[in-house]
Amino acid sequence: MEAFAAWLVVWGKTRAVGWLARHWPKLVAAGLAVGGAAVFVAVTAATLVSGTDQDAVAANACTELGYMVDEAAYQPPPVDQKPVIPTGGPVAGFGRDDADKIANAQAIVAAGAEAGVGRRGLIVGIATALQESGLENLDHGDRDSLGLFQQRPSQGWGTAQQVLDPRFAALAFFGGATSPHFHPSAGKASPAGLLDVYGWADLPVTVAAQSVQRSAFPDAYAKHEDRAAVIVDALIDGVPAGALAPAPGTGVAPGSDPPGVVTAADFRASGVDIDAFCSSSFQLASATRPGSSLGGQIIPTGAWTAPLQSRITSAFGSRFHPIYREWRLHAGTDFHAAVGTPIASPTVGVVGGVLWTSGGGLTVTIAHADGIETQHLHLSEALVTPGEEVQGGQIIALSGGSGIGTGPHYHFEVHVDGEPVDAEPFMLQRGVNLRAWS
């Protein structure tokens, strides 16, 4: 009975944590509506990761992901090379043959003035259009993306004809009460535009744009900021001064309490690629840390061992993916593993990489003899570094729940000459039965 009660408590906690993980944005939004004082955590996270005075908060999230953070050595990752600002045209920031682009920029500025986004919002809008379309009203794009902002009709941005109308597209991007997607009952637009992002005026241009666009290249907008400012300043002559004042409610609420601990999950929820930030800014924890390489039972050279002695939860082969909801090859073997479970190298080898992937999260790859490579996915911490020689049985990492998955587990892959193979028969041929603990 006591065992059942303990299990019931653990089950209840797991369900509660899962519910909170799915619904915390709604809870935070409700809290803002009632109190009107707290700053939305996800937007704060986006600000923090880009603000030079808030690197410590991003560093904390990187530490959570298993990175060794030396803040004294931190250097922000460089922005992509900024494009040359064209000259010689009738409007600053444009070339001689850019009449159509100038007209599109004028439409964006007019829509921004109508929406009341101010100079800052106009710069965000122009920078976004420069990245998405080069200020050309494109009738094509990725999947069904169209127009100046590459808005997708299938995602609710309007019909193909509507998103190809520069004024319609710009008003939709700016959002707020003038958006064609504004819902009076909700008090905001859906899809959300710039004015629907709380505190957008205090965000870096690239983060503000990404909060609307949800681009696969979230850092790309920053390189267009300088040119966008030149264009906006050249086009706002004649725009009523009142239209250039920031819209009410766009800044951080005065008197707000400082935010609490911002986690890696908060950054990801706001569209910030915290994994790329960490990998480009810090080093993963390595075996130089005292005791991190100890604890594994070293086996003779040439012998093989199970990287983890645990129950198999998903085998190699084609399966219906629980997240992507489609049939695809599951190229590895999944094991039941709580976060922090030690993972061993199956045999002697050299660490080929310690990296982040979108699906596998924190991953360690090890090159072995005869064209064999093993991959270890969804880790919480890596205990080795690229180029390091490891012994069979040596602890190389701790399991986790990073990347895409339904919960913490350990994913083990074997590749032979670059192709994934089923780890179970492969290991059985080497005297290791991975099913021994199932």
In short:
The chain is an alpha+beta fold. It is built from 12 helices and 16 strands. β15 and β16 form a beta hairpin.
Kindly describe this structure.
With 438 residues, the protein is α+β, with helices and mostly antiparallel strands. The protein contains 12 helices and 16 strands. It has helices at residues 2-35, 41-50, 55-64, 99-115, 118-133, 160-163, 166-174, 205-213, 225-235, 264-269, 274-281, 423-428; strands at residues 67-68, 182-183, 188-189, 283-284, 312-314, 317-320, 327-330, 333-335, 342-344, 349-357, 361-367, 372-382, 389-390, 395-399, 410-416, 419-421. The strands form 4 sheets. Strands 5, 8, 9, 10, 11, 12, 13, 14, 15 and 16 form a 10-stranded antiparallel β-sheet that branches. The radius of gyration is 26 Å and the shape is elongated. Mean pLDDT is 77; it is low at 32-54, 71-77, 248-261 and 285-295.
Secondary structure elements and their pairing?
Layout (H helix, E strand, L loop, with lengths): L1 H34 L5 H10 L4 H10 L2 E2 L30 H17 L2 H16 L26 H4 L2 H9 L7 E2 L4 E2 L15 H9 L11 H11 L28 H6 L4 H8 L1 E2 L27 E3 L2 E4 L6 E4 L2 E3 L6 E3 L4 E9 L3 E7 L4 E11 L6 E2 L4 E5 L10 E7 L2 E3 L1 H6 L10
Antiparallel strand pairs: 1-4, 2-3, 5-8, 6-7, 8-15, 9-14, 10-11, 10-13, 11-12, 12-14, 12-15, 15-16
Helix pairs in contact: 3-11, 4-5, 4-7, 5-8, 5-9
